[in-house]
Amino acid sequence: MTEKRHREPPVRLWGAPVLEPQEWIPYVPSTGHWVESPWLLTTSTFVADDATEWGWTSHPEPELLWSATGNVTVEAADHVWLVPPALGIWLPAGMPHRVKASAGAVTYATYLNPELTRTFWHTVTGIPLSRLLREILLHNQREAMPDEERLRLQQVGVDLIRPVQAASLDIPLPKTPGLRIIAERIIADPADDRTTEEWARELGASGRTLMRWFQRDTGISLTQWRILVRVRSALIDIAAGTPVVAVSRRLGYANPSTFIDLFRQVTGHTPAAYFRSVSGTDESAPLPRVPPGPSVMS
Protein backbone atom coordinates (compact mmCIF):
# COMPACT_ATOMS: atom_id res chain seq x y z
CA MET A 1 0.00 0.00 0.00
CA THR A 2 1.53 3.32 -1.07
CA GLU A 3 0.57 6.13 1.30
CA LYS A 4 -1.38 9.11 0.13
CA ARG A 5 0.01 10.85 3.19
CA HIS A 6 2.99 9.81 5.24
CA ARG A 7 4.33 10.70 8.65
CA GLU A 8 7.53 12.67 8.25
CA PRO A 9 10.37 11.09 10.27
CA PRO A 10 11.78 8.10 8.35
CA VAL A 11 12.61 6.12 11.49
CA ARG A 12 9.25 4.31 11.17
CA LEU A 13 10.61 2.62 8.05
CA TRP A 14 13.29 0.86 10.04
CA GLY A 15 11.06 -0.82 12.59
CA ALA A 16 11.24 1.70 15.44
CA PRO A 17 8.39 4.01 16.48
CA VAL A 18 8.01 7.72 15.92
CA LEU A 19 7.84 9.30 19.37
CA GLU A 20 7.18 12.97 18.55
CA PRO A 21 3.82 14.42 17.45
CA GLN A 22 3.72 14.60 13.68
CA GLU A 23 1.95 16.51 10.95
CA TRP A 24 0.69 14.75 7.86
CA ILE A 25 2.59 15.78 4.73
CA PRO A 26 2.19 14.77 1.06
CA TYR A 27 3.92 11.48 0.40
CA VAL A 28 6.33 10.94 -2.52
CA PRO A 29 6.30 7.26 -3.59
CA SER A 30 9.58 5.41 -3.12
CA THR A 31 10.84 2.10 -4.42
CA GLY A 32 12.96 1.58 -1.29
CA HIS A 33 12.44 -0.97 1.44
CA TRP A 34 10.19 -0.36 4.44
CA VAL A 35 12.08 -2.65 6.83
CA GLU A 36 15.85 -2.94 7.13
CA SER A 37 17.93 -5.29 9.27
CA PRO A 38 18.08 -5.97 12.13
CA TRP A 39 14.34 -5.25 12.39
CA LEU A 40 11.75 -7.91 11.61
CA LEU A 41 8.73 -5.71 10.96
CA THR A 42 7.34 -2.20 11.07
CA THR A 43 3.82 -0.77 10.96
CA SER A 44 2.58 2.41 9.29
CA THR A 45 -0.73 4.15 10.03
CA PHE A 46 -3.01 5.62 7.36
CA VAL A 47 -5.90 7.88 8.36
CA ALA A 48 -8.50 8.69 5.69
CA ASP A 49 -10.13 12.01 6.58
CA ASP A 50 -12.20 11.65 3.41
CA ALA A 51 -13.03 8.65 1.25
CA THR A 52 -9.63 7.68 -0.17
CA GLU A 53 -8.27 5.38 -2.83
CA TRP A 54 -4.57 4.54 -3.05
CA GLY A 55 -3.49 3.61 -6.57
CA TRP A 56 -2.00 0.33 -7.70
CA THR A 57 1.35 -0.44 -6.08
CA SER A 58 3.51 -3.30 -4.81
CA HIS A 59 6.27 -3.66 -2.21
CA PRO A 60 9.50 -5.67 -1.94
CA GLU A 61 8.33 -6.93 1.48
CA PRO A 62 5.28 -8.98 2.45
CA GLU A 63 2.52 -6.79 3.89
CA LEU A 64 -0.17 -7.42 6.49
CA LEU A 65 -2.99 -4.93 5.90
CA TRP A 66 -5.43 -4.44 8.79
CA SER A 67 -7.86 -1.82 10.04
CA ALA A 68 -9.19 -0.30 13.23
CA THR A 69 -12.34 1.47 12.06
CA GLY A 70 -14.23 2.18 8.88
CA ASN A 71 -14.77 0.36 5.61
CA VAL A 72 -11.52 -0.79 4.00
CA THR A 73 -11.14 -2.95 0.90
CA VAL A 74 -8.07 -4.25 -0.92
CA GLU A 75 -8.06 -5.42 -4.52
CA ALA A 76 -5.42 -7.90 -5.67
CA ALA A 77 -5.17 -10.90 -8.00
CA ASP A 78 -8.56 -10.15 -9.61
CA HIS A 79 -10.34 -10.33 -6.25
CA VAL A 80 -11.51 -7.76 -3.74
CA TRP A 81 -11.22 -8.40 0.00
CA LEU A 82 -13.05 -6.57 2.74
CA VAL A 83 -10.87 -5.84 5.78
CA PRO A 84 -12.96 -5.92 8.97
CA PRO A 85 -11.25 -5.06 12.27
CA ALA A 86 -11.10 -8.74 13.25
CA LEU A 87 -9.17 -9.79 10.16
CA GLY A 88 -6.01 -8.77 8.31
CA ILE A 89 -5.12 -9.41 4.67
CA TRP A 90 -1.72 -10.89 3.84
CA LEU A 91 -0.18 -9.58 0.59
CA PRO A 92 2.90 -11.46 -0.66
CA ALA A 93 5.99 -9.48 -1.63
CA GLY A 94 5.60 -7.99 -5.09
CA MET A 95 1.81 -8.46 -5.21
CA PRO A 96 0.18 -5.52 -7.08
CA HIS A 97 -2.76 -4.17 -5.10
CA ARG A 98 -4.83 -1.08 -4.44
CA VAL A 99 -6.70 -0.04 -1.31
CA LYS A 100 -9.88 1.95 -0.73
CA ALA A 101 -10.96 3.39 2.62
CA SER A 102 -14.12 5.16 3.73
CA ALA A 103 -14.02 8.57 5.41
CA GLY A 104 -12.70 8.22 8.95
CA ALA A 105 -11.14 4.80 8.38
CA VAL A 106 -7.88 3.99 10.15
CA THR A 107 -5.75 1.46 8.28
CA TYR A 108 -2.46 -0.16 9.27
CA ALA A 109 0.17 -1.70 7.01
CA THR A 110 2.67 -4.02 8.73
CA TYR A 111 5.68 -4.82 6.55
CA LEU A 112 7.95 -7.80 7.30
CA ASN A 113 11.63 -8.24 6.58
CA PRO A 114 11.79 -11.13 4.06
CA GLU A 115 15.46 -11.75 4.86
CA LEU A 116 14.95 -12.31 8.60
CA THR A 117 11.48 -13.85 8.82
CA ARG A 118 10.40 -17.29 7.66
CA THR A 119 8.80 -17.82 4.28
CA PHE A 120 5.14 -16.97 4.48
CA TRP A 121 2.31 -17.52 2.02
CA HIS A 122 2.61 -16.85 -1.70
CA THR A 123 -1.06 -15.98 -2.17
CA VAL A 124 -3.39 -13.41 -0.61
CA THR A 125 -4.41 -14.87 2.75
CA GLY A 126 -6.70 -13.91 5.63
CA ILE A 127 -4.93 -13.40 8.98
CA PRO A 128 -6.91 -13.24 12.26
CA LEU A 129 -6.01 -10.08 14.18
CA SER A 130 -6.16 -11.32 17.75
CA ARG A 131 -6.10 -8.75 20.52
CA LEU A 132 -2.58 -9.87 21.44
CA LEU A 133 -1.21 -9.52 17.91
CA ARG A 134 -2.85 -6.13 17.47
CA GLU A 135 -1.40 -4.82 20.75
CA ILE A 136 2.09 -6.13 19.95
CA LEU A 137 2.11 -4.40 16.55
CA LEU A 138 0.85 -1.14 18.04
CA HIS A 139 3.24 -1.32 21.01
CA ASN A 140 6.16 -1.81 18.62
CA GLN A 141 4.97 1.16 16.59
CA ARG A 142 4.47 3.58 19.46
CA GLU A 143 6.80 2.78 22.35
CA ALA A 144 10.50 3.40 22.99
CA MET A 145 12.51 0.38 24.23
CA PRO A 146 16.01 -1.12 24.00
CA ASP A 147 16.85 -2.75 20.70
CA GLU A 148 17.10 -6.24 22.22
CA GLU A 149 13.64 -5.87 23.79
CA ARG A 150 12.17 -4.60 20.53
CA LEU A 151 13.56 -7.55 18.58
CA ARG A 152 12.07 -10.01 21.09
CA LEU A 153 8.70 -8.25 20.83
CA GLN A 154 8.83 -8.30 17.04
CA GLN A 155 9.65 -12.01 17.00
CA VAL A 156 6.55 -12.75 19.10
CA GLY A 157 4.50 -10.69 16.65
CA VAL A 158 5.89 -12.65 13.70
CA ASP A 159 5.11 -15.95 15.46
CA LEU A 160 1.47 -14.88 15.97
CA ILE A 161 0.81 -14.31 12.26
CA ARG A 162 -1.17 -17.39 11.20
CA PRO A 163 -3.72 -17.97 8.41
CA VAL A 164 -7.39 -17.80 9.27
CA GLN A 165 -9.23 -21.11 9.53
CA ALA A 166 -12.67 -19.68 8.80
CA ALA A 167 -14.30 -18.18 5.73
CA SER A 168 -12.25 -16.36 3.14
CA LEU A 169 -13.34 -12.81 2.40
CA ASP A 170 -12.37 -12.78 -1.26
CA ILE A 171 -14.84 -11.87 -4.00
CA PRO A 172 -13.86 -12.88 -7.57
CA LEU A 173 -14.12 -9.94 -9.96
CA PRO A 174 -15.20 -10.32 -13.60
CA LYS A 175 -12.66 -9.39 -16.26
CA THR A 176 -15.07 -8.28 -19.01
CA PRO A 177 -15.37 -4.44 -18.84
CA GLY A 178 -19.18 -4.35 -18.95
CA LEU A 179 -19.49 -6.98 -16.24
CA ARG A 180 -16.83 -5.22 -14.18
CA ILE A 181 -18.89 -2.01 -14.20
CA ILE A 182 -21.97 -3.90 -12.97
CA ALA A 183 -19.89 -5.65 -10.30
CA GLU A 184 -18.45 -2.38 -8.99
CA ARG A 185 -21.93 -0.85 -8.80
CA ILE A 186 -23.21 -3.81 -6.80
CA ILE A 187 -20.22 -3.61 -4.44
CA ALA A 188 -20.91 0.12 -3.98
CA ASP A 189 -24.57 -0.60 -3.13
CA PRO A 190 -25.07 -4.23 -2.06
CA ALA A 191 -28.75 -3.56 -1.26
CA ASP A 192 -29.53 -2.76 -4.92
CA ASP A 193 -32.40 -5.13 -5.69
CA ARG A 194 -32.41 -4.95 -9.48
CA THR A 195 -33.05 -8.31 -11.10
CA THR A 196 -30.69 -10.13 -13.42
CA GLU A 197 -32.89 -9.13 -16.36
CA GLU A 198 -32.66 -5.45 -15.37
CA TRP A 199 -28.88 -5.60 -15.12
CA ALA A 200 -28.71 -7.46 -18.44
CA ARG A 201 -30.67 -4.75 -20.23
CA GLU A 202 -27.91 -2.27 -19.40
CA LEU A 203 -25.57 -4.43 -21.50
CA GLY A 204 -28.11 -5.06 -24.25
CA ALA A 205 -28.22 -8.76 -23.38
CA SER A 206 -30.68 -11.26 -21.98
CA GLY A 207 -30.66 -12.33 -18.35
CA ARG A 208 -29.58 -15.82 -19.38
CA THR A 209 -26.66 -14.43 -21.38
CA LEU A 210 -25.55 -12.23 -18.48
CA MET A 211 -25.62 -15.20 -16.11
CA ARG A 212 -23.53 -17.25 -18.55
CA TRP A 213 -20.98 -14.46 -18.96
CA PHE A 214 -20.73 -13.92 -15.21
CA GLN A 215 -20.28 -17.63 -14.54
CA ARG A 216 -17.54 -17.74 -17.16
CA ASP A 217 -15.64 -14.78 -15.66
CA THR A 218 -15.98 -15.53 -11.94
CA GLY A 219 -16.76 -19.22 -11.64
CA ILE A 220 -20.05 -18.56 -9.83
CA SER A 221 -23.46 -17.22 -10.84
CA LEU A 222 -24.42 -13.57 -10.50
CA THR A 223 -26.96 -14.54 -7.83
CA GLN A 224 -24.32 -16.35 -5.77
CA TRP A 225 -21.85 -13.51 -6.29
CA ARG A 226 -24.34 -10.90 -5.05
CA ILE A 227 -24.93 -12.97 -1.93
CA LEU A 228 -21.19 -13.00 -1.24
CA VAL A 229 -21.06 -9.23 -1.68
CA ARG A 230 -23.92 -8.74 0.77
CA VAL A 231 -22.45 -11.04 3.40
CA ARG A 232 -19.02 -9.47 3.18
CA SER A 233 -20.51 -5.98 3.33
CA ALA A 234 -22.34 -7.05 6.47
CA LEU A 235 -19.07 -8.16 8.08
CA ILE A 236 -17.79 -4.59 8.16
CA ASP A 237 -20.86 -3.25 9.93
CA ILE A 238 -21.17 -6.16 12.37
CA ALA A 239 -17.47 -5.91 13.26
CA ALA A 240 -18.02 -2.21 13.99
CA GLY A 241 -20.82 -3.07 16.44
CA THR A 242 -23.91 -2.48 14.28
CA PRO A 243 -26.76 -4.80 15.38
CA VAL A 244 -27.54 -7.66 13.03
CA VAL A 245 -31.14 -6.46 12.69
CA ALA A 246 -29.98 -3.06 11.40
CA VAL A 247 -27.45 -4.67 9.05
CA SER A 248 -30.03 -7.03 7.57
CA ARG A 249 -32.44 -4.15 6.93
CA ARG A 250 -29.71 -2.07 5.29
CA LEU A 251 -29.07 -4.95 2.91
CA GLY A 252 -32.75 -5.25 2.01
CA TYR A 253 -33.85 -8.14 4.22
CA ALA A 254 -37.10 -7.42 6.07
CA ASN A 255 -36.65 -10.54 8.19
CA PRO A 256 -33.30 -10.78 10.05
CA SER A 257 -33.59 -14.58 10.21
CA THR A 258 -33.42 -14.71 6.39
CA PHE A 259 -30.16 -12.79 6.47
CA ILE A 260 -28.73 -14.93 9.29
CA ASP A 261 -29.58 -18.11 7.37
CA LEU A 262 -27.87 -16.72 4.28
CA PHE A 263 -24.83 -15.68 6.33
CA ARG A 264 -24.60 -19.22 7.70
CA GLN A 265 -24.79 -20.68 4.17
CA VAL A 266 -21.78 -18.60 3.11
CA THR A 267 -19.56 -18.82 6.21
CA GLY A 268 -20.82 -21.91 8.03
CA HIS A 269 -21.55 -19.73 11.11
CA THR A 270 -23.97 -17.27 12.56
CA PRO A 271 -22.48 -13.73 12.62
CA ALA A 272 -21.47 -14.03 16.28
CA ALA A 273 -19.85 -17.44 15.79
CA TYR A 274 -18.05 -16.23 12.67
CA PHE A 275 -16.22 -13.48 14.54
CA ARG A 276 -15.26 -15.92 17.29
CA SER A 277 -13.77 -18.16 14.62
CA VAL A 278 -11.70 -15.49 12.85
CA SER A 279 -10.39 -14.21 16.17
CA GLY A 280 -8.89 -17.64 16.78
CA THR A 281 -11.18 -18.69 19.64
CA ASP A 282 -13.02 -21.32 17.59
CA GLU A 283 -10.58 -23.98 16.40
CA SER A 284 -13.32 -26.16 14.90
CA ALA A 285 -14.46 -23.61 12.32
CA PRO A 286 -15.51 -25.32 9.06
CA LEU A 287 -14.32 -24.08 5.71
CA PRO A 288 -16.63 -21.76 3.77
CA ARG A 289 -18.79 -22.90 0.89
CA VAL A 290 -20.49 -20.94 -1.87
CA PRO A 291 -24.25 -20.81 -1.28
CA PRO A 292 -26.42 -22.83 -3.69
CA GLY A 293 -27.93 -19.71 -5.18
CA PRO A 294 -31.41 -19.18 -3.68
CA SER A 295 -33.73 -17.00 -5.71
CA VAL A 296 -33.88 -14.10 -3.25
CA MET A 297 -31.47 -12.03 -5.35
CA SER A 298 -32.28 -13.21 -8.87
Please characterize this protein's 3D structure.
It is a single chain. The chain has 298 residues and is α+β, with helices and mostly antiparallel strands. The chain has 9 helices and 12 strands. It has a 5-stranded antiparallel β-sheet with strand order 3-10-5-8-11, with helices on one face. A 5-stranded antiparallel β-sheet has the order 4-9-6-7-12. Strands 1-2 form a two-stranded antiparallel ribbon. A hairpin with a 2-residue loop joins strand 6 and strand 7. Helix 1 (131-142) packs antiparallel against helix 2 (147-159), helix 4 crosses helix 5 and helix 7 (244-250) packs across helix 8 (256-267).
Question: What would a concise description of this structure say?
Answer:
The protein is an alpha+beta fold and 298 residues long. The protein has 9 helices and 12 strands.
